[in-house]
Amino acid sequence: SGRSAERAIAAAEAHGAHNYHPLPVVVASAEGAWMTDVEGRRYLDLLAGYSALNFGHRNRRLIEAAKAQLDRVTLTSRAFHHDRFGAFCAELAELCGMEMVLPMNTGAEAVETAVKTARKWGYRSKGVPDGRARIIAAENNFHGRTTTLISLSTDPEARAHHGPFTPGFPIVPYGDLAAMEAALDAAPEETVAVLLEPIQGEAGVVVPPPGYLAGVRELTRERNVLFIADEVQSGLGRTGTTFACEHEGVVPDVYVLGKALGGGVMPVSAVVSSREVLGVQRPGEHGSTFGGNPLACAVALEVVAMVRTGEFQRRSATLGELLHRELGPLIGNGVRQVRGRGLWAGVDIEPSHGTGRQISERLMDRGVLVKDTHDATIRIAPPLVIGEEDLMWALDQLRAVLAE
Ligand code: PMP
Predict the structure, then answer these.
(1) In this structure, are residues 63 and 88 in contact, taking their beta carbons and an 8 Å threshold?
(2) Which of 43, 169, 170, 295 makes an SS bond possible with 74, Cβ 3.0 to 4.6 Å?
(3) What are the per-10-residue average pLDDT scores of the chain (404 residues)?
(4) Is 88 an active-site residue?
């Protein structure tokens, strides 16, 4: 009833820390691209858990794999081997065209792991003394919320009163190759890595100019600097290819994966790289109680198998073309700009038509759930299993809201 929704929201407000500002919908169940609230109202999910739900809510294969594993063993810790771990690492490494995998749980943990690994690799392979390593990152990045990762954030809200920060992260404008070259050449001996999202998700689905990623790849290779691609949000089918780096034919030195790797069932993340890079991690130097646990590995193994079919990438590419074709004519009609690739779009709303939050609330009233980003942007990133008619219906709702 309406009262149970109110009660749930009141309890969340009273006892949950206010570190999010959720839309006033209380989800009780979900299937595919649809969620149902406690009152039985249905909503089309155009956020997909920030791309954790690429394969849809309660994807059958993932639920079956999880249930089967629940009946065997869920957690061993890495103190012992378990029978899913090696297979998971081997399959994921192969999907990435890499050699080794270091599993963690969340995206932030995996980026932290990549940062620590790159610094140690710099010491081993380039002789960068402790305390001197530089990792170049981009303006408006989002890599996670730990103290070190907000140290390289340029979002004042994320940083405010959370310092002191971790040093060693020069920042360059995203998409500016000359600035990247200058930052690399400011201290090439001490620069161990460039850390980039191949498409910036939280910034509002910002696609870099053509040639940028390929240029960064060339600059880093020439200078023996690692290219770390944070594909936590862009990877595993979201952009119409397995990895967003593929759009420029780029193979980074390190992939950071998360979100969709656990299919929205388990938190699963990973750093995937060469033996030379991940081989610098020795026993006892880094780890996680839950990283690489049997339940996570069982689910992620199924995710890798599904990604390997190519089916989700194809859906994202085909439906994404449709999405962007439909969004294009809205420019000048309530929309200022549209960016993105595949089933992933950042839509800047004309201020005269309301804030991103207001548009999100009005879409919610019409049964469509999106996420506002900053003041003026909404993000569209449905599960890749969304039906074509459902997607078209959601766009009808957006057009209606903009016309109101
Ligand atoms: N990297 C990127 C590119 C992300 O989009 C996110 C989450 N939005 C993260 C890292 C952090 O992931 P998590 O929330 O699982 O820590």
Answers:
(1) no
(2) 295
(3) 88 96 96 97 98 98 98 96 98 98 98 98 97 98 98 97 98 98 97 98 98 98 98 98 98 98 98 98 96 98 98 98 98 97 98 95 98 92 98 98 94
(4) no
| Sequence ranges of the domains in the chain | 2-58+311-403, 72-308
CA of 7 to the centre of ligand 1 (A): 30
At position 255, the amino acid (one-letter code) is: Y
**ipTM score assigned to the predicted complex:** 0.99
Hunting for tokens 């310092």 — which residue is that?
A: 163
Tell me which of 3.40.50.2300, 3.40.640.10, 3.40.50.1100, 1.10.3720.10 is the CATH number of domain 72-308.
3.40.640.10
The Cα–Cα gap between 55 and 111 comes to 23
DSSP state of 208: P
3-state helix, strand and coil shares in percent for the chain, rounded to the nearest 5: 40, 15, 40
For residue 327 the two structure tokens come to 């969004």
For the packed helices 85-96 and 294-308, what is the interaxial angle rounded to 10 degrees? 30
Q: Which residue stretches of 137-210 are H helix?
A: 147-151, 156-159, 177-186
The kind and range of the H/E element at 211 are none
**C-alpha of residue 296 to centroid of ligand 1, in Å:** 18
pTM, whole model, 2 decimals? 0.98
Catalytic member of 45, 230, 253, 390: 230
- DSSP helix/strand/coil, 115: helix
pLDDT on residue 2: 77
Rounded to whole angstroms, the Cα distance separating 394 from 44 reads: 7
230 classed as catalytic? yes
Tokens 């490494």 sit on residue: 93
Report d(CA 165, CA 214) in Å as an integer: 31
Q: With CA atoms as reference, report the closest residue to 260 among 307, 226, 222.
A: 307
2-58+311-403, superfamily in CATH? Answer: Aspartate Aminotransferase, domain 1 (3.90.1150.10)
